[in-house]
């Protein structure tokens, strides 16, 4: 589903050239739950941004469902983000002026669905995250865990091919974090691929596969892509039981 | 603390130069437009005779026919007939000083062969005109009481006419011709800085009167009456003759054309004079004059000037628009200041968390507002100066450059009082404009602002 | 892009929204009223005069001595002026084009019930058409023996013929030919026969102000009187000679002692004077209006650039969720247009209310809906323009740099 070959992300100033990502090769199959780990400044977030088409890259290729996204126009990139990728951020990143319902609505608007279809999807997504009763609340009226669940609903509503989560539980206390993690696992179990950046070893342990990034390189993939494919649901169940 | 606040204000102004510039520009432009108009208004309201302007009154008696409409303001009421003016002048009254005024035009020439005659707008009056209205002299003085009585052939001319006829030399004692009569110059006026011709009630701005003549002399010469003449309807057909024909007809008529100014230095004097005019009217009524109900007016120069100003419809239009426009500019400033201060939300939260009291922060932003107000005010004064220069040029253009610049430029000038007012308005309006924004910002609870971005 | 998200977002920024709406509304009202009074002022402003004003000189002298010989003075003046090098022809006249403020009621029937027409009646001699440099449209000009020359109070004879301008002829007689018709220059006085119709010439500010700029008639007469201004002179010069000729005209008229020159100028200046008051007033109004529009536009640009900065993160989130650059641009333009339109509607009501309350403010109360609409569209365009730049900067925000 997602194949990256020899990808490099280079920041250039007039004097220095920094490779934030250096010659990355990666293959992710549908249904995987990938955790991305690494120390601060290692390039995790850059990787997520590039994978989420929020940033461009200089070298290598990035195939998404078999199509190379390299050199696509902004409009095409926006459409791919809108249709195929769901984002979950550490800081939730809800739009503060909009109630829950309308926050979930944002990507659907850009998708161009009609009002009926949007409502169906929003209701379904809020149902999934267990916030159907809160659709009129403003983000500030919700707890952190609830806010993150709204963000997850927003990411899910477009029925994306994969979710990109950047420290999704980083701003939450342990109780809420467990709830959110459980939700993500359920979503993954239902078939959505998840790529999650985290520095919490307990969370990464629950992923089907771990990618460790150091100085812009992938240093170890403990499990091969092939073995991972058959495992997601099992691993998910196992981790769940261990909680 | 003030120094610290000033320093913070300066840093904050530099922080968002574009927004600061916009706020300052909005205030400056609004103020510039407003001050351009207010300066003219202020100059037009300046008192022609200083504090005495309040003590010098125009005497008016309703000598119209019985069908004339009722009049509530002195502006609409005619002046005096020749007979009444002379009667009132001759009586023993509470008036400290008094003079009559009407206007004409003289064709003036010297005896030099190489000069052509010039037309001079002229004032026919008495010797007390000059002391009553504090008219400054360059050479010589006004004429004597005897000259008034005898209608002596004397004249006072202005500095500009003296320049035209005598090249600016001291011409006291020189002879000039007025129409076909010969007159001796007894005085030359210095520049008389009045903004409009109040003394004939016209409040005309522009061509200054160049020649001042004793009434007896003017009547002997039968000079035309280019002055406001109010006649009863039955007399209207004779108006051209009243203006241009033999003056005796006008003197004998009930038409009103002579302005009588009296100086009444106290409220008792005013009361005395009012009683005097009232009894005069009663007395004349017994002689069959004054068909209407008694309706005397005794309004000061200030009152007349204010009425004249409020009747200037074009200027009022400008004034209304100026306020309107200044309002829009101020609104603009509010929007920009709101934008500017809302950006500070986080800084406020931080300072509050570090222990700043709300009032301290309010002070800090007030100082910043005052700095913006001062800069806006100063720029506004510069803009007002440019605006006034522009209005002066436009006025000169609109009057076809027939008015000498120096006779009108005072109307388009700023003085210290205006500069102070401008600064004050600039600061006050900025503070008013910024009050809501800073109040809003300073009341924000610190915690949530610090926690999230 | 739906309306709902915009409204929800504005609900959180009510004060801003209100201020923008108010500002747009007041700007519209202020500018509309300036435009109203300007259109009234500039109605028929600088319309074609039908005259080559730069080759015409108007000069007048007035006696101040008692009982001068006016008749011989006029004869002398005409001789002296005609003999000046550069002068082509001269006529006496009672008033001049561009300053013919002496407007009379003229009639095509006698009796008190007769309909009156307003016109500037010129009194000239047989050189009239030559001096004015205009052609006859129909009929003929004056013969010299038709010109009445008399002392006003001593004459019982008045001109038997008259010429009308095309505009006056059409005003009075419509499609019918005016030639041969009878014309009363004064009610119930001696009538005259219309013998010619000439091309339109500008009269003066009074007729211009009522849209009858070209209503004029010329009578063949030269009158003088002690109670009246002496006839003045209209002089046609060789092309370009007029400015240099003024000094000669002055000397020529001053050779007669006992009088003074009250006017001596090229008609270009008379024409300028006719219009400059209204022109300058309009200029002031329009300048202030332009400044106001500029300030409003700048304010709007400043505000939106603030909102853009304020919403950087929001914009980033929207971009991450699939908004294209065009979506972001549209969002800001739509938000601004929404507020602007509400402001404009409010402004239209304010404008109308003011116009009804203070008719004088807009110059004889002429409320013109088409003008309000034009000003409204202009304001909207300027606001769109003002918003475009900051909004484009918003669209270029890199999502990765503001979220995470």
Number of domains of chain B: 2
Main β sheet profile of chain B: 6 strands, mixed, barrel
- Oligomeric grouping of the chains: heterotrimer
Number of domains of chain C: 2
Chain pair forming the biggest interface: B-C, 51 and 52 residues
How many angstroms does the end-to-end distance of chain B come to? 30 Å
Question: What string gives the helices and strands of chain C in order?
Answer: HHEHEEEHEEEHEEHEEHEHHHHH
Q: Helix share of residues of chain C?
A: 40-55%
In round numbers, the mean pLDDT of chain C is 89
Helical segment count of chain C: 12
**Taking Cα atoms only, what radius of gyration of chain C do you get, to the nearest Å?**
32 Å
Q: Strand sequence of the main sheet of chain B, in spatial order?
A: 2-3-8-5-7-6
Number of H- or I-type helical stretches of chain B: 17
Helix content of chain B: 40-55%
| Helix-and-strand structural type of chain C | alpha+beta
Primary descriptors:
heterotrimer, B: 453 residues, alpha+beta, 6-stranded mixed β-barrel, 17 helices, 13% strand, elongated, C: 404 residues, 8-stranded mixed β-sheet, 4-stranded antiparallel β-sheet
Tell me what the structure shows.
- The complex is a heterotrimer of chains A (243), B (453) and C (404).
- Chain A is built from 9 helices and 10 strands.
- The longest helix of chain A is centred in the last third of the chain and has 16 residues, at 174-189.
- Helix content of chain A is 40%, strand content 25%.
- Chain A is globular and about 50 Å long.
- Chain B is built from 17 helices and 10 strands.
- A 6-stranded mixed β-barrel of chain B has the order 2-3-8-5-7-6.
- In chain B, strand 2 (97-109) and strand 3 form a beta hairpin.
- The longest helix of chain B has 41 residues, at 358-398.
- Chain B is elongated, with a radius of gyration of 30 Å.
- Helices cover 49% and strands 18% of the residues of chain C.
- Chain C is built from 12 helices and 12 strands.
- Chains B and C meet through helix 2, helix 8, helix 12 and helix 14 of B and helix 2, strand 12 and helix 8 of C.
Concise synopsis of the structure shown:
The complex is a heterotrimer of chains A (243), B (453) and C (404). Chain B is α+β, with helices and mostly antiparallel strands and 453 residues long. Chain B is built from 17 helices and 10 strands.
How are the SSEs placed, and which strands pair?
The complex is a heterotrimer of chains A (243), B (453) and C (404).
Chain A: E1 2-12, E2 17-28, E3 33-37, H1 44-51, E4 59-64, E5 67-68, H2 74-84, E6 85-88, H3 100-111, H4 115-129, H5 144-157, E7 162-166, H6 174-189, E8 193-197, H7 201-205, E9 209-214, E10 217-220, H8 225-229, H9 232-242
Chain B: H1 2-15, H2 17-45, E1 56-60, H3 82-90, E2 97-109, E3 118-125, H4 128-132, E4 137-140, H5 145-150, E5 154-157, H6 159-166, E6 175-178, E7 181-189, E8 211-214, H7 215-221, H8 239-244, H9 247-252, E9 259-263, H10 267-286, E10 297-300, H11 301-310, H12 313-342, H13 345-353, H14 358-398, H15 405-408, H16 416-442, H17 446-451
Parallel strand pairs in B: 3-8, 5-7
Antiparallel strand pairs in B: 1-9, 1-10, 2-3, 2-6, 2-9, 4-7, 5-8, 6-7
Helix pairs in contact in B: 1-14, 2-12, 2-14, 2-16, 12-16, 14-16
Chain C: H1 3-11, H2 14-41, E1 56-63, H3 70-82, E2 87-93, E3 103-107, E4 116-124, H4 128-132, E5 136-139, E6 148-151, E7 161-165, H5 166-173, E8 182-183, E9 192-198, H6 205-209, E10 216-224, E11 232-237, H7 242-254, E12 259-266, H8 267-310, H9 312-320, H10 325-357, H11 369-395, H12 399-402
Parallel strand pairs in C: 4-10, 6-10, 7-9
Antiparallel strand pairs in C: 1-11, 1-12, 2-11, 3-4, 5-9, 7-10, 8-9
């Amino acid at each position: 589903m997602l194949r990256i070959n020899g990808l490099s992300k280079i920041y250039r100033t007039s004097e220095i050239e920094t490779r934030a990502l250096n010659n990355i090769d990666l293959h992710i199959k549908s249904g995987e739950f990938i955790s991305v780990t690494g120390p601060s400044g290692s390039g995790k977030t850059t990787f997520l941004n590039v994978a989420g088409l929020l940033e461009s890259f200089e070298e290598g290729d990035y195939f998404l469902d078999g199509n190379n996204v390299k050199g696509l126009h902004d409009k095409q990139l926006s459409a791919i983000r809108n249709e195929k990728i769901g984002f979950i951020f550490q800081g939730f990143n809800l739009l503060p002026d909009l109630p829950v319902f309308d926050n979930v609505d944002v990507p659907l608007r850009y998708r161009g669905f009609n009002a009926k279809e949007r409502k169906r999807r929003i209701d379904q997504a809020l149902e999934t995250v267990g916030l159907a009763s809160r659709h009129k609340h403003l983000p500030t009226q919700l707890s952190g865990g609830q806010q993150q669940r709204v963000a997850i609903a927003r990411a899910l509503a477009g029925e994306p091919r994969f979710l990109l989560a950047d420290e999704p539980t980083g701003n939450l206390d342990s109780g809420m974090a467990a709830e959110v993690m459980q939700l993500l696992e359920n979503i993954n179990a239902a078939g959505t691929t998840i790529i999650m950046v985290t520095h919490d070893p307990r969370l990464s342990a629950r992923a089907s596969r771990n990618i460790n990034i150091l100085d812009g390189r992938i240093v170890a993939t403990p499990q091969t892509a092939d073995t991972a494919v058959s495992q997601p649901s099992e691993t998910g169940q196992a981790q769940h039981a261990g909680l | 603390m003030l120094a610290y606040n000033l320093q913070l204000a300066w840093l904050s102004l530099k922080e968002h130069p574009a927004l600061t510039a916009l706020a300052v520009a909005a205030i400056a432009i609004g103020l510039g437009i407003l001050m351009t108009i207010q300066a003219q208004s202020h100059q037009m309201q300046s008192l022609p005779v200083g504090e005495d302007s309040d003590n010098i009154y125009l005497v008016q008696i309703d000598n119209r026919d019985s069908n004339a409409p009722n009049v509530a303001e002195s502006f609409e009421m005619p002046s005096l007939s020749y007979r009444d003016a002379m009667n009132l002048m001759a009586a023993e009254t509470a008036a400290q000083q008094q003079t009559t005024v009407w206007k004409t035009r003289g064709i003036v020439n010297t005896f030099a062969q190489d000069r052509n005659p010039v037309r001079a707008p002229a004032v026919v009056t008495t010797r007390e005109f000059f002391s009553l209205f504090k008219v400054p002299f360059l050479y010589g003085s006004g004429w004597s009481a005897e000259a008034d009585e005898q209608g002596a052939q004397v004249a006072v001319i202005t500095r500009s006419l003296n320049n035209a006829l005598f090249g600016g030399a001291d011409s006291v004692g020189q002879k000039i011709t007025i129409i076909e009569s010969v007159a001796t110059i007894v005085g030359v006026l210095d520049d008389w800085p009045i903004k409009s011709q109040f003394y004939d009630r016209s409040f005309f701005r522009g061509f200054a009167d160049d020649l001042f003549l004793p009434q007896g002399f003017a009547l002997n010469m039968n000079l035309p009456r280019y002055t406001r003449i109010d006649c009863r309807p039955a007399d209207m057909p004779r108006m051209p003759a009243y203006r241009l024909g033999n003056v005796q007809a006008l003197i004998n008529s009930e038409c009103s054309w002579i302005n009588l100014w009296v100086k009444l230095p106290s409220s008792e004097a005013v009361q005395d004079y009012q009683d005097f005019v009232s009894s005069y009217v009663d007395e004349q009524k017994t002689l069959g004059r004054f068909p209407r109900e008694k309706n005397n007016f005794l309004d000061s120069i200030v009152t007349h000037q204010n009425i004249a100003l409020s009747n200037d419809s074009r200027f009022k239009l400008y004034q209304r628009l100026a306020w309107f426009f200044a309002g829009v500019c101020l609104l603009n400033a509010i929007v920009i200041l709101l934008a500017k201060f809302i950006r500070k939300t986080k800084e406020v939260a931080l300072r509050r968390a570090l222990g700043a009291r709300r009032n301290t922060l309010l002070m800090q932003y007030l100082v910043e507002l005052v700095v913006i107000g001062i800069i806006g005010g100063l720029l506004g004064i510069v803009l007002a100066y440019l605006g006034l220069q522009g209005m002066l040029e436009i006025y000169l253009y609109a009057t076809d450059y027939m008015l000498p610049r120096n006779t009108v430029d005072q109307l388009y000038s700023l003085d210290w009082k205006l500069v102070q007012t401008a600064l004050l308005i600039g600061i006050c309006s900025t503070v008013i404009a910024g009050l809501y924004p800073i109040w809003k910002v300073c009341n924000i609870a610190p915690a949530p602002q610090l926690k999230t971005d | 892009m739906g309306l709902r998200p915009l409204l929800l977002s504005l609900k959180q920024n009510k004060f801003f929204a209100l201020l923008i709406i108010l500002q747009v509304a007041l700007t519209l009202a202020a500018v509309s009223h300036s435009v109203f009074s300007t259109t009234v002022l500039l109605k028929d402003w600088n319309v074609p005069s039908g005259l080559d004003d730069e080759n015409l000189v108007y000069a007048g002298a007035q006696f101040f001595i008692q009982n001068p010989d006016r008749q011989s003075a006029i004869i002398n003046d005409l001789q002296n002026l005609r003999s000046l090098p550069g002068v082509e022809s001269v006529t006496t006249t009672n008033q001049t084009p561009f300053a013919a403020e002496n407007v009379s009621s003229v009639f095509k029937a006698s009796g008190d019930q007769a309909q009156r027409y307003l016109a500037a009646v010129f009194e000239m001699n047989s050189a009239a058409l030559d001096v004015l440099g205009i052609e006859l449209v129909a009929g003929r000009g004056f013969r010299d023996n038709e010109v009445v020359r008399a002392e006003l109070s001593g004459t019982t004879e008045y001109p038997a013929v008259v010429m009308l301008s095309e505009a006056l002829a059409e005003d009075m007689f419509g499609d019918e030919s005016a030639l041969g018709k009878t014309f009363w220059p004064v009610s119930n006085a001696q009538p005259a026969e219309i013998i010619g119709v000439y091309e339109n010439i500008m009269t003066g500010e009074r007729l211009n102000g009522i849209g009858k700029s070209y209503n004029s008639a010329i009578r063949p007469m030269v009158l003088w009187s002690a109670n009246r201004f002496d006839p003045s002179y209209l002089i046609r010069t060789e092309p370009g000679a007029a400015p240099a000729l003024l000094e000669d005209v002055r000397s020529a008229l001053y050779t007669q002692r006992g009088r003074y020159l009250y006017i001596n100028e090229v008609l270009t200046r008379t024409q300028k004077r006719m219009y400059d008051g209204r022109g300058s007033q309009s200029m002031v109004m329009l300048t202030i209006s332009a400044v106001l529009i500029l300030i409003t536009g700048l304010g709007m640009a400043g505000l939106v650039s603030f909102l853009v900065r304020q919403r950087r993160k929001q914009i980033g989130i929207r971009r991450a969720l699939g908004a294209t650059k065009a979506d972001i641009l549209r969002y800001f333009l739509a938000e601004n247009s929404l507020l602007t339109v509400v402001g404009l509607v409010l402004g239209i009501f304010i404008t109308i209310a003011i116009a009804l309350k203070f008719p004088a403010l807009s110059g004889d109360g002429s409320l013109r809906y088409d003008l309000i609409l034009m000003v409204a569209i202009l304001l909207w365009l300027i606001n769109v323009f003002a918003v475009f730049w900051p909004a484009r900067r918003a669209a270029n925000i890199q999502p990765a740099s503001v979220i995470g």
